[in-house]
Specification:
The chain is mainly alpha-helical. Helices cover 48% and strands 5% of the residues. It contains 17 helices and 4 strands. Helix 9 runs antiparallel to helix 10, helix 11 packs across helix 16 and helix 15 packs across helix 16. The longest helix is centred in the first third of the chain and has 27 residues. The N terminus is likely disordered.
Amino acid sequence: MSMNKEIMATTIEHPAENKVEPELLGLLAEFNDPESLMEASRKVRDAGYNRWDTHTPFPVHGIDEAMGIKYTILPWIVAACGLTGGTIAISMQYWMNAVDYPFLISGKPLFSIPACIPIMFELSVLLAAFGAFFGMLGLNQLPKLYNPIFKSDAFRRATNDRFFLSMDASDPKFSEIDTGEFVKSLNPNHVEEFWSDVESPKLPRNLKLGLSLFGVLMLMPIALVAYKRSTVTDNPRIHIIPDMDFQPYLKAQNTTTIFGDGREMRPHIPGTIPRGQYKDDNIPFYYGLKVLPEDQDVITIAAQDEAKADEKKPAEAKPAEGANADAQAAAEDKLANLPWVTEFPMPVTDKMMARGKERYRIYCSVCHGLGGEGDGLVTLRAMDLQQGTWVRPASYHTDNVRKQPVGRLFHTITNGVRKMPAYGPQIPPEDRWAIVLYLKALQKSHQVDADTLTNDEKRKLRDTK
């Protein structure tokens, strides 16, 4: 029996030893109108209290001055973050472009402030926005999901029609008796104390289960990514939004069981060409030749030989010698002996001349110059760099070029020559002939005597230029 009494005494006394006494956190005063709150705020400010606040259902103009709130340092935080972002951006671009991976493009500087401005602007704005957002949260001590003051039934009207002033007990000047008398002297409707919670609230069982499940689900994407990065598979990735990634067609360089040879790519059927690409019905128009030679490949092979002969020829190279000279002469002979057309295979009109002028200035003038002298902006830039890899375009007004038939000029535009690339894939045949017509007009403009021209002829000549 005595043992049972001893156990009961232990059971009763044990909770008393761990009991937590509530702590006074502050005082809460209620006012009817904003004017009363403003007057009370001035008195609290003048009394020297530092840790106190006001609570109103709507913004009250002048409350900041009445409370003596100092100007926020948030703009300085935003400015510091913005400057940090700009510094990171310009440092990052300098390291990438000028130090770690320098890449020379057309003689442009490896590092240039104007080129860095977009990234500097974006990163400055990004970090400034982060500074404004997180700085505001930190200065306001947010997020704060619970405050013991919420337990006050009267305080619920702070979002409706009442105005409150709260005094924090952590203020160095706070005294339960003196501060209480001071708050009552402010003539509030009601004053009450708010205390700390004695017991920690327990989370509902369902909420615990929900949070646990949510935590497990959050770990699953990380575990899945880690698993995929550590394994190898032949299966394609899963496309949530497939777009046009998967279509019912055969892909190049793959195998298939549809065709007997097992290849998905189908070779060209002998004796056939794609619809609309038959050119032999108008040889002068498509090739600049009266008839095609027996070996049609001589057209492109000759151009390739001529390009190879001048492949390593510098801008101011000496006359070709040895095998280089022989290859260049052979290529020239092949091209010169072809039956080039001497007349345009399409009607020559003013519209065709205007089109040729427009196309020439788009594709040709950058290297050959507006007058065809071989002094375009690209040529002048390349000659200034003196890198030894540029072949200056020949002037259209030299005897060699001026005597070339129109078919030969058309061929040069189509297949290219020396450093000049082939423009056949870019410029339609009609526009290539229009460019040849304009070239002939430029050549003719250098072969006439201005004193013998009429005013109308001079005007037409000026329009051509």
